[in-house]
Amino acid sequence: MNSEITFASLGLADAILHAVTDAGYTHPTAIQAQAIPQVMKGGDLLAAAQTGTGKTAGFTLPILHRLLGQPAKQRKAGTPRALIMTPTRELAAQVEESVRLYSRNTDIRSLVLFGGVNINPQIRALQRPIDIIVATPGRLLDHCRQKTIDLSQVEIVVLDEADRMLDMGFIRDIRRILSLMPSERQNLLFSATFSPEIRELARNTLRSPIEISVTPRNTASELITQQVVVTEQAHKRDLISHIIRQSGWHQVLVFCRTKHGANRLAEKLSKDGLNAAALHGNKSQSARTRALDGFKTGKVVVLVATDIAARGIDIDQLPYVINFELPQVPEDYVHRIGRTGRAGSEGLALSLVDRSEIKLLKAIERLINRDIDHIEIADFEPPARSAQSESDEPRRRNAPRHGEGARNGQANRRPGGRDNAGRGAQPAGGRARTADARGRRPQPQRTRSSGSTSAVATTQG
Fold it and tell me: Considering its fold, how many domains does the chain have in total?
């Protein structure tokens, strides 16, 4: 991104520019610098941008600019001019919050529509003039069927995180919704990757689109320190509790594969004195909102989430992401750890890996084209008999046991972070190494071989 580019130089309407400036932003991110001028021109756009790149402002700002520059002759109840579709409730709420933030100095009105809540307040809100709708496909179709919304005047449509919507099986809903709109409209499609499925959707939806990509496919931010701890599945809950408590971490996002696993881990962490909450699709919308709000404000120290539920989490300086289990799909690893290392801040992504997950780890390393550093944890002694199950998902009976390093006297190191007394991580040798003046986290030194791997965490500088 050219450092000379500012939001003021992009030609945004004064009312929008003032809102952006008031929010503390002066220079656009790479995706914003490329997408905003293209959207303002009115053409279709196919954009590849990972989570944390600022893509939401990349389409909300120029949409607001276009709607202000071409006022509607007559505003009608329940008849939006712009529609933004997202895969999850949390992401829909986040996007609509951004729309309201940047339109605060205008008379543009927006509304968010998603399931899991009473539809009647949404129906009442749609009885007033609305300019921008942010919605999940399922609830939007409910309104279309009940004829409480009219999409015949939509001028701009956005498919945000289109790859995730396809993964979640929304393609039929999306096609039905698109068929209810005018054929003459501007289409914007944002995706983390340009998979074959996304290419096909783009061919059927977009017209001669401009294509932009700001991140190489399937790469993680250079600001993210990635580490792996190899351990037994039966020890993971005790280990993750030990790491968070001994390091004094706050705002830790933990990923589990299953809703049941997320609940059990959150309960375990809470019993150990950590303020933890679970976030997944079986939670009521009010419970999900409370958990997210608590996490953002720091009241909830650990948020344990499934992949889909975590899509709406948007925190600029989230410091820690832990993979309690590796995802089955390697690309999901990139999505997960992309929650940290954002907005110029460093982040740490730690994965707890059981021997049965080594193949998944190797697949991830091939995808991101790098080896992930292996570390061991200081002062962790697993209980003689763990009360937890071997795994949240069925495990082969003959899966080999491993992870005896701590008990066999191998050198241990705690991953980057600080203990509760504010001191740096204590190496096994007894001499404390403190973080530097900027508080950067320890970086691992790798000692890898074709067989087992290990690493010793040391501080930068």
Answer: 2
The residue from 213, 246, 271 where one domain ends is 213
Percent of the chain with pLDDT over 90: 51
Tell me, yes or no, whether 218 lies in a domain.
no
The DSSP symbol for 445 reads E
Q: One-letter amino acid identity for 439?
A: G
- More confidently predicted of 34 and 401: 34
pLDDT tens string 109-149: 999 999 989 999 999 999 999 999 999 999 999 999 999 99
Q: Do you know the residue count of the chain? A: 461
What integer best gives the mean pLDDT of the chain?
80
Strand partners, 228: 351, 374
Q: Give the domain extent around 206.
A: 7-213
How many Å separate Cα 101 from the centre of its chain?
A: 20
What distance in Å separates the CA atoms of residue 64 and residue 57, rounded to the nearest whole number? Answer: 10
Taken in order 404, 406, 409, 414, the sign of the CA dihedral is: positive
Residue after which a domain boundary falls, among 180, 213, 246: 213
Angle between helices 196-205 and 171-179 (to 10 degrees): 10
pTM beyond 0.85? no
Compute the distance between CA of residue 62 and CA of residue 44 in angstroms, rounded to an integer: 13
